[in-house]
Every structure is written in C-alpha cells, then in structure tokens.
Amino acid sequence: MYRHRRWSRIGVLTISMAVLLLVFCMKRAAAQTDTAHPEYADLLFDDGRVHTIDIQMEDWEGFLEHASLKEYRSCTVVVDNEVCTQAGIRVKGHNSRRLIEKYGWDRYSLKIEFDRYLPGQSYHGLDKLALDTSFQDNSYLKSCLAYDMMAHMGVPSPLTSYVWVTVNGSPWGLYLAVEEPEDAFARRNYGEHHGQLYKPDYKSLDDENADVALRYVDDNPDSYDNIFRKSRFDVSEEEKQALIRSLKCLSEGEELETAVDVEEVLSYFTVQVFVVNLDSYLGRTGHNYFLYEESGRIQMLPWDYNLAYGTYSLGMPNPVNDAGKYVNAPIDTPAEGEVMLERPLFHQLMLKKEYYEEYHRQFDRFLKTYFENGVFEQKVDQITEMISPYVEKDPTAFCSYEDYRTGVETIRNFCLLRAESIRGQLNGEIPSTIRGQSLDQSAFVDASSVWIPDMGEIADLKADKRN
Predict the structure, then answer these.
(1) Which of 14-18, 107-111, 124-128, 310-314 has the lowest mean pLDDT?
(2) pTM given for the model
C-alpha cells in the first residue's frame, strides 16, 4: 500500500512536471512566433495599400537648412493616425543628400528612430525606419523591386511599403518606408538570440578599404575599423575574433561552409548580379550591404538600390548609357578582374565547382519562379496601380508624372530583357564572362528599345521637370 501511494505521488509529480514543461515550451514558441512576425509587419508593412506618416515639427524649415549635419531632431510621428511622440528624425544619405542639396532640392531621404529620446518606445516593435525619397528613380520602383526579389529568394531583407508623407499636415510626397536593419530586424529574422549585424563602409574611397571588401588583413581588430565601428550592436572581443576567423578562412578558400552561409550568400548574389548594382560590393565602391555574423558564419544582406539597374554614374567621367551592355551584363564575372580578385566573398565561392553550379541553379530557379511565370509583371502592375494617384499629386517629386510612367515601363522592360539574356547565358547561348562577351556578342538580347536615363539620372536634378 505504501509502495502504491509512493508511486502514485511520483506519477503525479511526473505529470505535473510534464505539464509545466509543455506550458513553458508553448510560451517560448509563442514568444518566438511574436518575434518572427511582429505586429509592425502587418501594420505599417502591409504592402497592399499606401500608408500615411505625418511628421510634426515646430521648425521644419530649420531642420532642412541643416540637413548636411545629419543630426537627429525631436518630432512627433503619426503613423496611420497612431501618434508616437518624441521620436528622432534626421536626414539620410551621402552622395544623394549632397546632390539634392547642391541642386537646390529639399526632398531628402529620412531616418526615424522611435526610441531615440524615449528608451523602449517603438512602433509595435519597430525601432527604426528609413524613408526612401526615390532619388534618381523616376519609376519609384528600384528599391521596392530589389528587396522583393531578395525576399523571394529567401534572403533576409527589410520589409517595405509605400507611405504618403505629410509635414505638419501638409503634403510632402510619396516615399518608400524601409525597415532599418537594427534590433527589430534582427529579432524578426534571427530570433531573440541573434548574432552581430554590421554595415561596413569606407571613410574615404581613396583608402584601401580591405575590410569593406571582406579581405583578411591580420588578426588585429583595429585593421577592420570600417566593419566594427559600423556595428549595430555592442561587439565583444570574442565576437570580433570570430568574424576575423571567418575572413581568414574566406581568404584561404578552404572549408568555406564553416565561415559562410553559402546558400544564403549565393541567393544574395543571384539577385545582386541580376539588378546590375554597380554601387555595391561587386562594384568599385564595394559597400552598400549589411553583414550578419553568427557562430562564425557570415551572411550578406541587401541595402540601397536607388542606383541599380545600370543607372550608377557617380564618379564616372563618361557614364555608359548603353542598355545592351547592362541587359547582357555577364553573370559569372559581373566586374573586371581587378575588382573581382578583391571581392573574396564572391570570388572564392565561384572558384569551387559545386558552388558555381549551385549559383547557376539559383539563377535558374529565380528566373522560373519570378520572371518566366509572370510574378514580376504582376508585381509591377499591382504597385503602379496603387501608387500612381499619389505620384501624380506628389508636390516634391524629382520628375513629372509622364516621366514616372516612362520610368516604370523602362525598368519593366529592362528586367524582362535582363531575364531573357541570363536565360541565354545559362543555356550557353550568350557568353557569361566579360572575356567571352568581348569576343562574341552575336547572340546578345537586343535592348535598343530601353534608354537607361529614363529610369532617372543626375541631370534630372538640374532642371525642374515636374511640369
């Protein structure tokens, strides 16, 4: 009898512990679900409609006059009629800001930081937001489409939606809201116990900037200042050494899967090469990306596409406006050899037969599931139907409504022809390297119907083309 009661108590205790464990697991799963799909994803980043943001400031004109300082100012932000007081706002951008100011415009890209002055404040979990001004983008589509392509390929990407921005209740313009890669982004994509997030960038383009190119220099963290000073979170010495070991492994080209999330990086480069973004890691500047590191493995994340689709001309003495060149840009050597040799994250992967073949398989999947089944065209149609009435009344637009419509058709045609050319490259009908194309362009896709500047160029800033 005693033994029976004893085992009964043990049974009850076991069941109780099991129930408590189940409750704990359910709570943890619920917390992870909330983290993976926060409220702001369904609110501000519901991309099926144009949202509203009203910026309320006493001295908006003074804020614009000091745009070059890029200093935060306090403001009230009203998102879809929901008020967030004491948020921080500042002007965003480097060359875009400089050129906008140089040619007498004041339509700057902006950053809004909800917890700048009130620690812990957020917009339903969102801590930071960028407002993209569509600089050098008459189509208003460049960044939105690039992020959508990245997300389609499984690359952790910022959420986006279009917003009608007003200032103290008065219309200011149509912007693209972009989830800034910081705490909320990291939690949404990687969970509460996420790794490190960096935005490598140079101080001067004249410097070597080996760290921005992700080249191993030595084991001294000071040699990677352009990475570590641009970290989104506090970085420990252990975490610095973990990243340096990854870069060393990358430089040696051995056991790359221990240092690189190969599948994610190949997916990233598939889209990056498709959109011909010359102001990027694969271009002369080598920047405009986020770097994620966890447990010694790195990922590359997308950022900044207003100069993609062959429209980069900053610093070029004689910009090339040949659509045929960019539509048929080779996928296997997307830049000259002297650049590729200095970009180990792409170069070392392409040296491995299995990764090179996987890169081509990724391109095949991308074309089949995004272009050849009509998803891309449907996306363009849905967006333009939604935003066109706002573009037409945009009081600060860089272009006229007619230029916008032309820009939309230009980027649509560019992408469709680009997809056609890459299909030809995958099939071996069109050379997929710079050297091969220098010898044979007979099968090039004809892009004479596309005029690259119609997507937006610096010259548009020199003359007000809104009327």
Answers:
(1) 14-18
(2) 0.91
Q: How far apart are CA 287 and CA 163, in angstroms?
A: 27
Residues 197 and 435: their CA atoms lie apart, in Å, by: 36
> For all residues of the chain together, what is the average pLDDT?
91
For residue 202, the SS3 value is: coil
| DSSP 3-state of 444 | coil
Within 10 angstroms of residue 340's Cβ, the number of other Cβ atoms is: 17
Q: What value does the mean pLDDT take over residues 350-377?
A: 98
Name the token pair of 241. Answer: 């050494």
The whole-angstrom separation of Cα 99 and Cα 104 is: 9
Q: Per this entry, what is the length of the chain?
A: 467
> How distant is the alpha carbon of residue 339 from its chain centre?
22
Question: What tens digit of pLDDT does each residue of 237-287 get?
Answer: 999 999 999 999 999 998 999 999 999 999 999 999 999 999 999 998 999
More confident residue, 212 or 68: 212
Note the pLDDT of residue 3: 44
pLDDT (tens digit per residue) in 83-141: 999 999 999 988 889 999 999 999 999 999 999 999 999 999 999 999 999 999 999 99
Q: Which two structure tokens, joined as six digits, stand for 24? A: 């704990």
Dig out the tokens for 420 from the structure.
């056609």
CA atoms of 139 and 85, how far apart (whole Å): 33
- Residue 115 has a CB neighbour count (10 Å cut-off) of 19
Q: At what angle do helices 401-426 and 353-366 cross, to 10 degrees?
A: 130
> How many C-beta atoms surround the C-beta of residue 154 within 10 A?
12
Distance CA 407, CA 390 (A): 15
Q: How far apart are CA 247 and CA 75, in angstroms?
A: 41
* Alpha carbon distance, N-terminus to C-terminus of the chain: 96
For residues 122, 126, 128 and 131, what is the CA-based torsion angle, rounded to 10 degrees?
-120
Burial class for 86, CB neighbours closer than 10 Å (0-12, 13-18, 19+): middle
Strands 82-92, 73-79: pairing is antiparallel
And the tokens for 346?
Answer: 């792409």
**How many angstroms separate the CA atoms of 181 and 179, rounded?**
6
